[in-house]
Amino acid sequence: MAVDTKTRALHWEKTRNLTYIILALWALFGIVLPWFAGSLNAYSFLGFPLGYYLCVQGSLIAFVALIWIQNWRQDAIDDEFGVGDE
Amino acid sequence: MALESTEKRSSFIDNLGKIYLLYTLGFLVFFGLMAVLERMGASAQTIGSGFLLFTIAIYAIIGWLSRTAEVDAYYVAGREVPALYNGMATAADWMSGASFVALAGGVYFGGYPYLGYIIGWTGGYVLVNALMAPYLRKFGCYTVPDFIGTRYGGNFARVFAVIILVVASFTYVTAQINATGTIAAQTLGISFEVGIWLGLMGIFICSMLGGMRGVTWTQVAQYIVLIIAYLVPIIWMSNKQGFGIIPHFSYGDAVARVAELEAQYGLTAALQPIAGLSVLTTPHNVPGDTMNAWKMVSLSICMMAGTASLPHILMRYFTTPSVRSARRSVGWSLIFIFLLYFSAPALATLTKLQLLDPNLATSIIGKSFTDVANLEWVKHWTSVGMLAVSDQNADGILQLNEFFMRPDIVVLATPEIAGLPYVISGLVAAGGLAAAMSTADGLLLAIANALSHDLYYKIIDPAAGTRRRLTVARVLLLFIGVSAALVASLKLTGILGAVAWAFNFACSGLFFPLVLGIWWKRANTEGAIAGMVGGFLAGSLYLYLVFNKMIEPWYGMDDIRFGIVGMAVSLVAMVGVSLATREPSKEVQDMVDEVRVPSGRTILGSTH
């Protein structure tokens, strides 16, 4: 099944943009927020200091969500261009 | 032969849910049986041995049933592993003896900077999913060097990838075999050396006959054991001590209380340190200055990039039926991993509270020294040299800086501290063994497969037939396993040190060559070689200098963070050299285009 060049280019553009968004959010939860855990500890969440909560639970939940959201959107992109493999 | 014909195999795949449900129930029944035996007066050693031998026997049976004579099944489990089960297998592959045994202890003693491991070892999967797994699955390779060798062409690139893979994975596997030996020795009451060889035999039975297929189905079984063994004690302890039914969402108060108690007792160094054991000196939750923030974040970056470059993890995603299911299985992997990683800090906090808080019956700090020294669990762990209490200021009271512990016993000792029955300790031992064995399986297979497929078949003897290839693969597996066990018996580093090094080696040498191979068409052979060699050598050299104290660590980058240096050099070298040399051929650029769409044939044929 050959995919023409134009479809490829559009598909890749959308795939790439989605990936950039996911990576930006990944950096937020994986790097930026843990960095500022000290300041965030001034706030409280579910009875935890917020900075601590993010490092032991919040960011982890965000990572799981990021993967499932990316896959949900990526499946839609693949189907839109007819290049899904299932 | 079991699982050999196509019909039998697909009926096995169709019935996976039933099979593993039955297995889980069987394991729980066995757990109940052991609990009854304990009531009837069976000794701790009988119960511990029962748990280890029963679980090893199960893994061996699965390994035997999964035996194969096909290349495709041996290298990539026939590419028929459903996403959910691949997620479980990856979680077991991923969570090593270090995660299971040492992580909670690390949080207990390491405070905020240590949380970099928690963030790093979960956040890495976002990178695996976004940058690597689906594309490598589309590529259709058997091993990670297979991708490097085909994308960049030429034997040089392939060989360098194999070398980095072997160094990173071998560092890691010795730590796992060490953990296997420690657990077997303690539970069965045999010597550490005998424990190592016994563990190695278990590992061989899982991996040798069935290759990736055998490892996959034993890893699923091992995940089930390890997650039950991690969660049951935490939930049991939490209920017994009144921390709530499921403590994970409600231990915020405990964090605050620990901070109060730390202030009350004071976090001071021991008057006379005891080698190999630690006293608590790092506050539980004080992020502190910019340097601490950088230490935390730099550690997590190394672990995240390392996750996305470690071949034994990436190759798990070669076993799914499609690109889409490879992605889905990354999602499942992280859910299964999350279950353990969000429990470890809860366990660390609650254990600490139990020891420190004078309002709790289990507390020891501030109590009479003689009383504490006579506690059963204190005596038990002191007798094996993993714990010590020493009244160094001679006031007859146990102070916080007079309680010494090896960090990696927190998980193993918690059931005893909380006064849970011994059957829980037996369960935890079985879980630790499952974690260490499953990771060792994956790593040994990654090394042996790279050597047999990339070095032997692709470079030395491309004419070799199926039988010969599989024989070579198995002989190499045996050889590498035995060498790893020999190195492990030297006890060079603690469990966690060697694990962190593996991640740093992997990200120094492989992260950018893998990512840019997919995401940057302009990346070429010369650039990839420069990236691999430059990054790997720079990282290793920095490690050597820092570890031997020949230079001061730059900006707090010590021996567990050398991947930052390695990756920086790797990126600059790879981009610089790629741009300075010719762009890749049209065929290579078309290949990259093809990798980026899920549909269509894989780049490498189903048997290559």
Could you please describe the fold and organization of this structure?
The complex is a heterodimer of chains A (86) and B (608). Chain A is mainly alpha-helical. Chain A has three helices and two strands, in the order ααββα. Chain A has a two-stranded antiparallel ribbon. In chain A, β1 (44-45) and β2 (48-49) form a beta hairpin. Chain A is elongated and about 55 Å long. The model of chain A has no long low-confidence stretch (mean pLDDT 92). Chain B is an all-alpha fold and 608 residues long. Chain B is globular, with a radius of gyration of 24 Å. Residues 1-5 of chain B have low confidence and may be disordered. Chains A and B meet through α1, β2 and α3 of A and α6, α11, α12 and α14 of B.
Describe the protein's topology.
The complex is a heterodimer of chains A (86) and B (608).
Chain A: H1 5-35, H2 37-40, E1 44-45, E2 48-49, H3 50-80
Helix pairs in contact in A: 1-3
Chain B: H1 6-14, H2 16-39, H3 44-65, H4 71-76, H5 83-94, H6 97-139, H7 144-152, H8 155-188, H9 192-207, H10 211-241, H11 252-265, H12 290-307, H13 311-314, H14 323-341, H15 344-356, H16 369-373, H17 376-383, E1 387-389, E2 403-405, H18 410-417, H19 422-460, H20 466-488, H21 495-519, H22 525-547, H23 563-580, H24 586-595
Antiparallel strand pairs in B: 1-2
Helix pairs in contact in B: 2-3, 2-10, 3-9, 3-10, 3-19, 5-10, 5-14, 6-12, 6-14, 6-15, 6-19, 6-21, 7-8, 8-9, 8-19, 8-20, 8-21, 8-22, 9-19, 9-20, 10-19, 11-15, 12-21, 15-18, 18-19, 19-20, 21-22, 21-23, 22-23
Shape of chain A: elongated
Total strand count of chain A, please? 2
* SS element count, helices of chain B: 24
How far from one another are the termini of chain A? Answer: 14 Å
Q: What portion of residues of chain B belong to β-strands?
A: under 5%
- Categorize the overall geometry of chain B: globular
Structural class of chain B: mainly alpha
Please count the helical segments of chain A. Answer: 3
What strand line-up does the widest sheet of chain A have? Answer: 1-2
* Average pLDDT taken over every residue of chain A: 92
The average pLDDT of chain B is: 89
Low-confidence stretches of chain B: 1-5
Strand content of chain A: under 5%
